From TrEMBL:
Its cofactor is Mg(2+). This is Dual specificity mitogen-activated protein kinase kinase 5. GO terms for molecular function: ATP binding; MAP kinase kinase activity; metal ion binding; protein serine/threonine kinase activity; protein tyrosine kinase activity. Keywords: ATP-binding, Kinase, Magnesium, Metal-binding, Nucleotide-binding, Phosphoprotein, Serine/threonine-protein kinase, Transferase, Tyrosine-protein kinase. It comes from Oreochromis niloticus (Nile tilapia). The gene is MAP2K5. Interacts with PARD6A, MAP3K3 and MAPK7. Forms a complex with SQSTM1 and PRKCZ or PRKCI. ATP binds at K183. Pfam families: PB1 (PF00564), Pkinase (PF00069).
Length: 438
């Protein structure tokens, strides 16, 4: 069997939980069951299911059946790789038994801790294993997902981009055997502030949504923080020109779902804009760079002064703001992506999105722009107009966003449309680059 690390996605009623298993050949049924029970403590899970290539559910109740599942999955993973795709995680669906039982009566071990030498032959001592059963799901996730990513295990590849404050690199994590995006931000701050940032970032381990970039780890080396996340091979939306409405519709659904998820965790994104919306060739759309750490945001803001052109009028004028400010930013971002230009022609965004406050005053003073009805559907025009109401209270709240006819129309789970469009744009970009070299 394939001995490469795999990602198992446990589908729970409260969301998905991804766990990286460094040595799948050592995984046994009980280990996995204990891990599942730990993330679903309220259910009595006795078995789980996976889907075969035609979508039929197959139950796993023993080591033999687990082996069959892993070997089926490894074949699919190899096939996806051969086709140039990043493998999907192995999705498993926990099955709850009818009567509540005594949990962990066999004293089973969670044997999924990555060990430092990446040597699969050492079992986890019982004391550690039993301890990990008591850990919160967030912490368990961290143990399962990456242990610790150390600076020396990261091999930097190319630079993906540079924003206000940080530089993002594509990198390879040797132990986890996966590609990462690592954002490196130089910060001259005290050790106390560093600790505060690290503890504020803890919440990222809890974020678990298909519409939010997966966070792996963060660490300080000298005066730089490195934030390691999932790599998205389509990059950010700011580099795509004009996006056709039927593609943008599916993107908008993912963004709205991502925001709704963050809001449900009481997190405001605070920096919704096209460069923080990432896509991949599988047609997934995910949000990144949301402001979970006030201290990190403040520390960066000390070096980079300016106001973000996607900010809602109430934020530009320094008033209090909430969820509705994210809704504005999403609206203006979609409008820019639909038009292929920033909707306020007098605002020239040359480098990045930060500008002197005075230049953005028109956003506060003028009536918001409206998409031309001749070029876009009525539903789309209405959706953007609602999101960009000057009065925050008139903008749709989370449930109204999901219920908007434009979102309903494109909420069909069709990732294929986005995937084909991303692949075509990347292909065009490659062709243009090649032509430029000739
Ligand atoms: P700002 O600093 O104002 O947020 P920004 O979003 O453009 O601006 P960064 O967040 O530093 O700047 O990102 C720089 C670029 O790196 C992005 O525009 C995007 O193209 C790329 N990038 C960031 N994260 C990823 C990722 N996870 N996968 C692939 N590319 C990424
Ligand atoms: Mg960004």
């Amino acid at each position: 069997m394939n001995t490469e690390a795999i990602v198992i996605r446990i589908k729970t009623p409260s969301g998905d939980m991804d766990s990286s298993v460094d040595c799948p050949s050592l995984l046994n049924f009980n280990d996995l069951l204990v891990a599942i029970r730990d993330v679903m403590p309220e259910a009595t899970v006795t078995a789980f299911e996976y889907e075969d290539e035609v979508g039929d559910r197959i139950t796993v109740r023993s080591d033999e059946e687990l082996k069959a599942m892993l070997s089926y999955y490894c074949n699919t993973m190899n096939e996806q790789r051969m086709n140039g795709l990043l493998p999907d995680p192995l999705q498993i669906f926990p099955r709850a038994g009818k009567t509540p039982g005594i949990r962990n009566i066999h004293g089973l071990k969670v044997n999924t801790r990555p060990n430092p030498a990446n040597d699969c032959s050492h079992a986890v001592p019982d004391s550690i294993a039993n301890n990990s059963l008591k850990k919160s799901s967030a912490e368990l996730k961290r143990i399962l997902t990456n242990g610790q990513i150390n600076a020396q295990d990261i091999h930097y590849q190319e630079q993906l981009g540079h924003g206000n404050g940080g530089t993002v690199y594509k990198a390879y994590h040797v132990h986890g055997k996966r590609v990462l995006a690592v954002k490196v931000i130089p910060l001259d701050i005290t050790v106390e502030l560093q600790k505060q940032i690290m503890s504020e970032l803890e919440i990222l381990y809890k974020c678990d949504s298909p519409y939010i970039i997966t966070f792996f780890s963060a660490f300080f080396v000298e005066n730089r923080i490195s934030i390691c996340t999932e790599f998205m091979d389509g990059g950010s939306l700011d580099v795509y020109k004009r996006i056709p409405e039927h593609v943008l519709g599916r993107i908008a659904v993912a963004v709205v779902k991502g925001l709704t998820y963050l809001w449900s965790l009481k997190i405001l994104h605070r920096d919704v804009k096209p460069s923080n919306m990432l896509v991949n060739t599988r047609g997934r759309v995910k949000l990144c760079d949301f402001g979970v750490s006030t201290q990190l945001v403040n520390s960066i803001a000390k070096t980079y002064v300016g106001t973000n052109a996607y900010m809602a009028p109430e934020r530009i004028s320094g008033e209090q703001y909430g969820i509705h400010a994210d809704v504005w930013s999403a609206g203006i971002s979609f409008m820019e992506l639909a038009l292929g230009m920033f909707p306020y022609p007098q605002i020239q965004k040359n480098q990045g999105s930060l500008m002197p406050l005075q230049l953005l005053q028109c956003i506060v003073d003028e009536d918001p722009p409206v998409l031309p009805v001749s070029q876009f559907s009525e539903k789309f025009v209405h959706f953007i107009t609602q999101c960009m109401r000057r009065n925050p209270k008139e903008r749709p709240a989370p449930n109204n966003l999901m219920d908007h006819p434009f979102i309903i129309q494109y909420n069909d789970g069709n990732a294929e449309v986005v995937s084909m469009w991303v692949c075509r744009c990347l292909e065009e970009r490659r062709a243009q680059l090649a032509q430029g070299r000739m």
